[in-house]
Amino acid sequence: MRYQRPKGTADILPGQSEAWHFVEETARLLFGDYRYNEIRTPLFESFDVFARSAGDTSDVVTKEMYDFHDKGDRHIALRPEGTAGVVRAYVENKLYGPEFAKPYKAFYIGPMFRYERPQSGRQRQFHQVGVEAFGSDSPALDVEVIAMATQFFETLGLTGLRVAINSLGDAESRENYRQALIDYLKPHYDELSDDSKERLEKNPLRVLDSKDPKDQQFVEDAPSILDYLTESAQAHFTEVKALLTELKIDFEIDETMVRGLDYYNHTIFEIMIESEAFGKGYTTVCGGGRYSGLVKEFGGPADVSGVGFGIGLERLILLLDSEGIEMPTANDLDVYVVGIGDETSHETLKLVQAIRGFGFSADRDFLDRKPKAQFKSADREKASFVMTLGQNELDAGTVNFKSMVTGKEDTIKLSDIYEDFPQIYDQHFEE
RNA sequence: GCGGUAUUGGUGAAGUGGUUAACACACCGGUUUGUGGAUCCGGCACGCAUGGGUUCGAUUCCCAUAUACCGCCCCA
């Protein structure tokens, strides 16, 4: 094997790509119903676009960015997620201007890149679908976004969703909580895992995410961020909960759910699902939340906030597969044209072309194979009908028309097929 | 970035330091000089991820590299 695909990449082959279309089309249609329109931004951006949005010290920037210098010595990075590019485009195209609807709602679908160690469902090139809505602080928009995500999964046929929400409050709430958390954890410093010791220094909220069982014991008794929300932050969260209840969307509050970045505030949420595909327990298939400051960071107005989510498509399709959800496969073949003898090649090609011209699918043999082998191909491609054309038919100006379902055969004039194939098709399909 | 397991044909896989690398599925051909899903028969790895090394001899042992998978880190 001379060449192999780059580490952490995958070929999506015919047979699988139909499932991708299904998921993507479902997203396009549904998001359209919510009046989110597709935005397509470059797969690569200036390195700074992502470094800016993620913070210079985060692992994403230092470790996971797929970056390089181009021939003009520009520092380029392949996009590791969708939000930064969308925000950049929002600001660069001045979509906050008065002529645009507010909130400005957009979705994206496409490949993302992270230079990390591949594992199942984690690749260096992977795909996400996500949405962003800018320019409204309304809790109703938070809930619309959550509702859209849950409806997306339900439309795909998934059940047993679990919606977890939390609030990080505003900047003041976060600062108060951060200090409280440090005060709580500091006395236990020596008992924490090495990883969490470091987290405590760099990003205390991350300790809440630790997988270490000992850490988790401390986390259980840690103060809750919800007790540190300012009055207005509290009001926002209360309204979100009320609206979710109104929409009959079941949710639970996870006080330990956090985000690493400072830009997140108020509502954050994850949608989880229990599936064999990812071992036991619930796995997150969608993460999202509200953020502020990003637009300003990119040079836009200071007061424009955003809310959105991202969904990893590889994981989602793994999930749909393991849940046995029916997804469309390659479309069936209407007609297979069997040609017998070299002399028929011209006519069989004209036939398939004519049938395709009428909007039906048609195929023929290209390997000079015998009739039996051609019938096998027709069978494998699930052809509804087979037309057989040999010297006899050619002389008579006819074709043998066989239904692969009933096995019934009929002789049809070539001229009739060229004139009105749909009529012949309908007539025989009825039987 | 760290640790572990694995790598045999189109696929699933068995196998051994020594002459022809099981078996099954798929595919191709024949049985039927022009008709599918069945039966039977035949074909299908000069090769065991790649590169070195040990050995009289390696797919089998050792080392390196690549890739996949699992765990950690991280996951905006």
From TrEMBL:
It is found in: Cytoplasm. PROSITE patterns: AA_TRNA_LIGASE_II. Residues 22-328 form the Aminoacyl-transfer RNA synthetases class-II family profile domain. GO terms for cellular component: cytoplasm. One of its GO terms (molecular function) is catalytic activity, acting on a protein. CDD domains: HisRS-like_core (cd00773), HisRS_anticodon (cd00859). It catalyses: tRNA(His) + L-histidine + ATP = L-histidyl-tRNA(His) + AMP + diphosphate + H(+). It is an enzyme of class 6 (ligase). Its EC number is 6.1.1.21. Homodimer. HAMAP family: His_tRNA_synth. This is Histidine--tRNA ligase. It comes from Paucilactobacillus oligofermentans DSM 15707 = LMG 22743.
